[in-house]
Protein backbone atom coordinates (compact mmCIF):
# COMPACT_ATOMS: atom_id res chain seq x y z
CA UNK A 1 0.00 0.00 0.00
CA UNK A 2 2.84 2.36 0.86
CA UNK A 3 4.50 1.66 -2.50
CA UNK A 4 1.18 2.34 -4.26
CA UNK A 5 0.72 5.58 -2.34
CA UNK A 6 4.25 6.73 -3.19
CA UNK A 7 3.67 5.90 -6.84
CA UNK A 8 0.47 7.95 -6.83
CA UNK A 9 2.27 10.86 -5.15
CA UNK A 10 5.02 10.78 -7.75
CA UNK A 11 2.44 10.58 -10.52
CA UNK A 12 0.57 13.52 -9.02
CA UNK A 13 3.74 15.58 -8.77
CA UNK A 14 4.64 14.77 -12.36
CA UNK A 15 1.16 15.76 -13.50
CA UNK A 16 1.36 19.05 -11.58
CA UNK A 17 4.80 19.74 -13.00
CA UNK A 18 3.57 19.13 -16.55
CA UNK A 19 0.67 21.47 -15.89
CA UNK A 20 3.02 24.19 -14.65
CA UNK A 21 5.54 23.94 -17.50
CA UNK A 22 3.72 26.29 -19.91
CA UNK A 23 3.32 28.88 -17.15
CA UNK A 24 6.98 28.58 -16.16
CA UNK A 25 8.05 29.03 -19.77
CA UNK A 26 5.85 32.12 -20.10
CA UNK A 27 7.20 33.48 -16.81
CA UNK A 28 10.81 33.04 -17.95
CA UNK A 29 9.94 34.61 -21.29
CA UNK A 30 8.42 37.64 -19.56
CA UNK A 31 11.52 38.09 -17.39
CA UNK A 32 13.74 37.81 -20.48
CA UNK A 33 11.67 40.37 -22.40
CA UNK A 34 11.78 42.85 -19.53
CA UNK A 35 15.56 42.39 -19.21
CA UNK A 36 16.02 42.98 -22.95
CA UNK A 37 13.73 46.03 -22.72
CA UNK A 38 15.82 47.46 -19.90
CA UNK A 39 19.06 46.93 -21.82
CA UNK A 40 17.61 48.59 -24.94
CA UNK A 41 16.09 51.61 -23.15
CA UNK A 42 18.78 52.27 -20.54
CA UNK A 43 21.15 54.11 -22.89
CA UNK A 44 18.57 56.44 -24.52
CA UNK A 45 17.04 57.19 -21.10
CA UNK A 46 20.45 58.14 -19.65
CA UNK A 47 21.13 60.42 -22.63
CA UNK A 48 17.73 62.08 -22.24
CA UNK A 49 18.33 62.74 -18.55
CA UNK A 50 21.86 64.00 -19.28
CA UNK A 51 20.39 66.54 -21.72
CA UNK A 52 18.18 67.82 -18.90
CA UNK A 53 21.33 68.75 -16.98
CA UNK A 54 20.89 66.28 -14.15
CA UNK A 55 23.97 65.29 -12.14
CA UNK A 56 25.71 62.08 -13.21
CA UNK A 57 25.15 60.28 -9.84
CA UNK A 58 21.44 61.20 -9.96
CA UNK A 59 21.13 59.87 -13.52
CA UNK A 60 22.83 56.63 -12.48
CA UNK A 61 20.49 56.31 -9.50
CA UNK A 62 17.34 56.99 -11.55
CA UNK A 63 18.24 54.64 -14.40
CA UNK A 64 20.32 51.85 -12.88
CA UNK A 65 18.40 51.59 -9.60
CA UNK A 66 14.90 53.05 -9.64
CA UNK A 67 14.04 52.40 -13.30
CA UNK A 68 15.47 48.88 -13.14
CA UNK A 69 13.60 48.07 -9.91
CA UNK A 70 10.32 49.32 -11.37
CA UNK A 71 10.74 47.14 -14.45
CA UNK A 72 11.80 44.18 -12.34
CA UNK A 73 8.75 44.59 -10.09
CA UNK A 74 6.40 44.60 -13.08
CA UNK A 75 8.19 41.59 -14.57
CA UNK A 76 7.98 39.60 -11.33
CA UNK A 77 4.30 40.41 -10.87
CA UNK A 78 3.46 39.31 -14.42
CA UNK A 79 5.66 36.21 -14.15
CA UNK A 80 4.13 35.21 -10.82
CA UNK A 81 0.65 35.50 -12.31
CA UNK A 82 1.61 33.00 -15.02
CA UNK A 83 2.55 30.31 -12.48
CA UNK A 84 -0.64 30.75 -10.45
CA UNK A 85 0.65 32.84 -7.54
CA UNK A 86 -1.96 35.09 -5.92
CA UNK A 87 -0.42 38.43 -6.91
CA UNK A 88 -2.96 40.53 -5.02
CA UNK A 89 -2.21 38.86 -1.69
CA UNK A 90 1.52 39.07 -2.35
CA UNK A 91 1.31 42.79 -3.15
CA UNK A 92 -0.75 43.40 -0.02
CA UNK A 93 1.90 41.65 2.05
CA UNK A 94 4.67 43.62 0.37
CA UNK A 95 2.74 46.83 1.07
CA UNK A 96 2.48 46.06 4.78
CA UNK A 97 6.18 45.20 4.95
CA UNK A 98 7.06 48.35 3.00
CA UNK A 99 5.01 50.49 5.40
CA UNK A 100 6.78 48.97 8.40
CA UNK A 101 10.19 49.47 6.80
CA UNK A 102 9.27 53.05 5.93
CA UNK A 103 8.48 53.86 9.57
CA UNK A 104 11.69 52.18 10.70
CA UNK A 105 13.84 54.00 8.14
CA UNK A 106 12.50 57.55 8.37
CA UNK A 107 15.95 59.08 8.78
CA UNK A 108 17.32 57.19 5.78
CA UNK A 109 14.35 58.25 3.65
CA UNK A 110 14.83 61.86 4.75
CA UNK A 111 18.49 61.66 3.72
CA UNK A 112 17.53 60.19 0.33
CA UNK A 113 15.01 62.97 -0.30
CA UNK A 114 17.67 65.49 0.72
CA UNK A 115 20.04 63.80 -1.73
CA UNK A 116 17.54 64.38 -4.55
CA UNK A 117 17.30 68.06 -3.55
CA UNK A 118 21.11 68.39 -3.58
CA UNK A 119 21.33 66.86 -7.06
CA UNK A 120 18.55 69.12 -8.35
CA UNK A 121 19.61 72.37 -6.64
CA UNK A 122 23.37 71.76 -7.15
CA UNK A 123 24.75 73.90 -4.28
CA UNK A 124 28.13 72.19 -4.82
CA UNK A 125 29.83 69.64 -7.04
CA UNK A 126 32.56 67.04 -6.62
CA UNK A 127 35.87 68.89 -6.26
CA UNK A 128 34.39 71.99 -4.58
CA UNK A 129 35.66 73.19 -1.21
CA UNK A 130 32.78 73.69 1.21
CA UNK A 131 32.08 74.47 4.84
CA UNK A 132 29.00 72.80 6.31
CA UNK A 133 28.09 71.75 9.86
CA UNK A 134 31.39 73.28 11.05
CA UNK A 135 33.32 71.00 8.68
CA UNK A 136 35.61 72.27 5.93
CA UNK A 137 36.94 70.15 3.11
CA UNK A 138 36.82 69.09 -0.54
CA UNK A 139 33.77 67.22 -1.80
CA UNK A 140 34.93 63.77 -2.90
CA UNK A 141 31.62 62.00 -3.51
CA UNK A 142 27.88 62.69 -3.39
CA UNK A 143 25.51 59.79 -2.84
CA UNK A 144 21.76 59.66 -2.34
CA UNK A 145 22.22 59.35 1.43
CA UNK A 146 25.48 61.10 2.32
CA UNK A 147 28.09 63.55 1.09
CA UNK A 148 31.76 62.65 1.65
CA UNK A 149 34.43 65.33 2.02
CA UNK A 150 38.18 65.28 2.63
CA UNK A 151 39.54 67.78 5.16
CA UNK A 152 42.89 69.56 5.09
CA UNK A 153 44.08 66.98 7.62
CA UNK A 154 43.32 64.29 4.99
CA UNK A 155 40.50 62.89 7.12
CA UNK A 156 37.42 61.37 5.51
CA UNK A 157 34.16 62.98 6.70
CA UNK A 158 30.72 61.54 5.94
CA UNK A 159 27.84 64.00 6.38
CA UNK A 160 24.17 62.94 6.11
CA UNK A 161 22.43 64.83 3.31
CA UNK A 162 19.63 65.94 5.65
CA UNK A 163 22.22 67.74 7.78
CA UNK A 164 23.50 69.57 4.69
CA UNK A 165 20.00 70.64 3.64
CA UNK A 166 19.21 71.95 7.14
CA UNK A 167 22.55 73.73 7.72
CA UNK A 168 24.14 76.91 6.39
CA UNK A 169 26.52 75.88 3.61
CA UNK A 170 29.44 77.91 2.27
CA UNK A 171 30.83 76.96 -1.15
CA UNK A 172 34.34 78.36 -1.43
CA UNK A 173 34.75 77.23 -5.05
CA UNK A 174 31.47 78.40 -6.60
CA UNK A 175 32.90 81.55 -8.20
CA UNK A 176 36.42 80.37 -8.96
CA UNK A 177 39.22 82.14 -7.09
CA UNK A 178 38.82 82.46 -3.33
CA UNK A 179 40.36 85.14 -1.11
CA UNK A 180 42.46 83.87 1.76
CA UNK A 181 42.96 85.99 4.89
CA UNK A 182 46.11 85.25 6.88
CA UNK A 183 46.30 86.96 10.29
CA UNK A 184 49.76 87.91 11.57
CA UNK A 185 51.14 90.12 14.32
CA UNK A 186 54.24 92.28 14.66
CA UNK A 187 55.78 94.02 17.65
CA UNK A 188 55.02 97.69 18.24
CA UNK A 189 58.66 98.56 17.70
CA UNK A 190 58.62 97.23 14.11
CA UNK A 191 57.96 99.39 11.07
CA UNK A 192 54.54 98.55 9.63
CA UNK A 193 55.33 99.89 6.15
CA UNK A 194 58.55 97.87 5.97
CA UNK A 195 56.67 94.76 7.15
CA UNK A 196 54.00 95.41 4.55
CA UNK A 197 56.52 95.62 1.70
CA UNK A 198 58.30 92.45 2.84
CA UNK A 199 55.10 90.42 3.20
CA UNK A 200 53.60 91.56 -0.13
CA UNK A 201 56.85 90.78 -1.93
CA UNK A 202 56.87 87.30 -0.38
CA UNK A 203 53.25 86.38 -1.17
CA UNK A 204 53.36 87.79 -4.70
CA UNK A 205 55.90 85.15 -5.68
CA UNK A 206 53.80 82.23 -4.43
CA UNK A 207 52.28 79.81 -6.93
CA UNK A 208 48.52 80.11 -7.17
CA UNK A 209 48.32 83.69 -5.87
CA UNK A 210 46.39 85.91 -8.30
CA UNK A 211 47.88 89.18 -9.46
CA UNK A 212 44.41 90.66 -10.07
CA UNK A 213 43.16 91.67 -7.62
CA UNK A 214 46.58 92.26 -6.02
CA UNK A 215 47.50 91.04 -2.56
CA UNK A 216 46.68 93.43 0.30
CA UNK A 217 48.04 94.06 3.77
CA UNK A 218 45.93 95.87 6.38
CA UNK A 219 45.99 96.62 10.09
CA UNK A 220 42.99 95.07 11.86
CA UNK A 221 43.60 95.89 15.53
CA UNK A 222 46.06 97.16 18.08
CA UNK A 223 46.55 94.26 20.44
CA UNK A 224 47.96 94.19 23.96
CA UNK A 225 51.42 93.14 22.80
CA UNK A 226 51.34 93.36 19.00
CA UNK A 227 49.92 95.11 15.99
CA UNK A 228 47.44 92.68 14.43
CA UNK A 229 47.44 92.58 10.64
CA UNK A 230 45.72 90.70 7.84
CA UNK A 231 47.36 89.51 4.64
CA UNK A 232 44.65 89.17 1.98
CA UNK A 233 45.45 87.28 -1.23
Write up what this structure looks like:
The radius of gyration is 32 Å and the shape is rod-shaped. β1 and β2 form a beta hairpin. It has 233 residues and is α+β, with helices and mostly antiparallel strands. The protein has 3 domains: 8-104, Helix Hairpins, CATH 1.10.287; 123-171, SH3 type barrels (Roll); 181-232. 56% of the residues lie in helices and 19% in strands. It contains 6 helices and 8 strands. α1 (2-51) packs antiparallel against α2. The mean pLDDT is 81. The chain has a 5-stranded antiparallel sheet. A 3-stranded antiparallel sheet has the order 6-8-7, with helices on one face. The protein starts with a helix and ends with a strand.
List the helices and strands and how they pair.
Layout: H1 2-51, H2 56-82, H3 87-104, H4 106-121, E1 129-132, E2 135-142, E3 146-150, E4 156-160, H5 161-166, E5 169-171, E6 181-186, H6 192-204, E7 216-222, E8 227-232
**Residues in helices, as a percent range:** 55-70%
Low-confidence stretches: none
Structural class: alpha+beta
CATH architecture label of the largest domain: Orthogonal Bundle
The dominant shape is rod-shaped
Rg over C-alpha atoms, rounded to the nearest angstrom? 32 Å
**Number of separate helices:** 6
- Give the ordered list of helices and strands: HHHHEEEEHEEHEE
With strands numbered from the N-terminus, the spatial order across the biggest sheet is 4-3-2-1-5
The count of DSSP E runs of length 2 or more, i.e. the number of strands, is 8
- How many structural domains does the protein architecture include? 3
CATH class bucket of the largest domain: Mainly Alpha
Question: Main sheet?
Answer: 5 strands, antiparallel
Mean pLDDT: 81
Strand content: 15-25%
Distance between the termini: 98 Å
CATH-derived topology of the largest domain:
Helix Hairpins
Amino acid sequence: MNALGNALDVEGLATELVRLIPGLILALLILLLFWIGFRLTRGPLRKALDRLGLAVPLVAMLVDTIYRLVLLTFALVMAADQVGINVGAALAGIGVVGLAVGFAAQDSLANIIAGFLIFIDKPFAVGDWITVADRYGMVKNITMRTTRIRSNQNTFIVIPNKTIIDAVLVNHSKHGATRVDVPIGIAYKENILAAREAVLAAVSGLEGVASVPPADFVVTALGDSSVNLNVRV
